[in-house]
Amino acid sequence: xxxxxxxxxxxxxxxxxxxxxxxxxxxxxxxxxxxxxxxxxxxxxxxxxxxxxxxxxxxxxxxxxxxxxxxxxxxxxxxxxxxxxxxxxxxxxxxxxxxxxxxxxxxxxxxxxxxxxxxxxxxxxxxxxxxxxxxxxxxxxxxxxxxxxxxxxxxxxxxxxxxxxxxxxxxxxxxxxxxxxxxxxxxxxxxxxxxxxxxxxxxxxxxxxxxxxxxxxxxxxxxxxxxxxxxxxxxxxxxxxxxxxxxxxxxxxxxxxxxxxxxxxxxxxxxxxxxxxxxxxxxxxxxxxxxxxxxxxxxxxxxxxxxxxxxxxxxxxxxxxxxxxxxxxxxxxxxxxxxxxxxxxxxxxxxxxxxxxxxxxxxxxxxxxxxxxxxxxxxxxxxxxxxxxxxxxxxxxxx
Length: 399
Hints:
By secondary structure, the protein is of the alpha/beta class. It is 47% helix and 15% strand.
């Protein structure tokens, strides 16, 4: 089976949630004897130099990149606002991408064109014109939900109004375009249910983010790492918003109760103002060379999300390693893990503080949670099981 993967970011190197999820599918398809071709958008924020990509990966995926300037252009944003069109979508429309995509589709026939994320759906018409392939939208999130939730938490009235308008425009586009593809893959049953309940009538299946079963391994909290930690890309608004909420509204309460506890924060695009605030016993690390090793070396993962949609890849990766995770209900959304069995849920300062109390006075609980987490991932996010479901979906659409 020949699959063209159309990506809004380069799947390699897999340095943050979206690329990690795309890379996982690429590897899954290659391991199941599919021929894969990748066309990826390159941007200033997530720029990949071809020379930094291993030769065997470039050969196996025939990956090509097209640069698209996604910098904010005030006039274009204003024009979209006045014409009631989504600026989130419009900025991904590029003549260079159109030319390259047309060239690829006329040079070879594909069975499946998988569009990774809503943002590249403006190219559906071009794909229809030059290919008979079935078009699948892989919906990493219900995109407009992120902006609805961000608007709800915004304290700036003008920002709140603007974000509400953006989310409304994006919602209208998202639900309309969902019926123009041949099928949809969601990363969670929550997102699948949303599309079904809002009149989307194309085939929809849930293909969760999967990991290599050989990487699933319990890693106890190191004796010298009695800490909590956060890791995530800070150019994703929900990460930034949630971390700032945790630091400003919750951390002081935890620090007062447990002054010896350290909070280590890692991630790309770390805002300078976090360092400037100098929170007590908080270590701002920034980007780390090996995210998996960073998780192994530290204590409990904190994921304090207030908005967002889809599935938090870092939670699944941490659970894969047997790390205990404390997150909000929104952070766990799309992951069917049980509170106090595989993870711990905390939505308020009081609930986070209660989790810290258990950490200090009942540490065995977190060992129990970590071990259960690895078994949960083995059962529900194992690539060996997910691959069969994905390929069956491809074949069903071709019938």
